[in-house]
Prior knowledge:
It contains 8 helices and 10 strands. By secondary structure, it is α/β, with parallel strands linked by helices.
Amino acid sequence: MKRRVPKILLIVGVVLMLFLLFQKSLTAFAEKFTPTSEPVEIQTPTIFVPGTNGTVNRFNGLIKTLDSKADVLKVTVATDGAVSSKGKLTSSTEHPIIVIAFEDSSNKTLSVQGKWYQLALSYIQKKYSFETYNYLGHSNGGLVITSYLEEFQQHDDPKLAKLITLGTPYNDTSKKYNDAVTSFTQLKETSDLLKGYLTNLENIPDTIEMLNIAGEVDDTASDNTVPVQSVFSGRYIYQDQVAEYDEVLIQGENTSHSELVENQKVVQLLKDFFW
Length: 275
């Protein structure tokens, strides 16, 4: 006499079979629609970083002047280190542009912005592949790259090839530290800010080519925010460390601190130097 299989066992068996089929279908669906993990290979990008309170939109005017059809990736780093982005780059883009900004780019977070910049680089590398890049730092954006190079650069990060810092206050902005001069052989006084950057300057790669640009409104030896002497104090950090170092003083119209970003002479220098 044949033994009958309890009805409950049949039901359990059918449910289990349906569950396994459902799981297999989900796996196949996920495999089919999961995007490739391979980063897109792009040409050497130019990374823009703004100064105090600057956002990813700070360079919109400059980018439009450079190339109105440029592909732009805008990356923002939150205070907890989380990174997000808007935009897309392609392998066919001749001059890809990446803007990196921080949720809090105030002076009080300056000491950690170099670390946040490194987090942004790591995030970008998961999406795009490139070995070298160029960098434009306006105002404190120049201090961000300096901090990164000295303290936070990782071995597998892409390498900085060409660097422009624009209106960067290497020796702070106070008249206490800076004379109203455009040419000098010694500083009035070395600020604590500059002393900090002189501590680890030997970590700066010796392959970098650099332009350090200052603006002067009228004959004030200042761009109305940062003294020229403070900007050119960058020589004490970079001049003997990098492959090439040059200083450029921009005079005439549109030379105030905020206007320098879209100054036509600066735009032309950027094109000639980077591209």
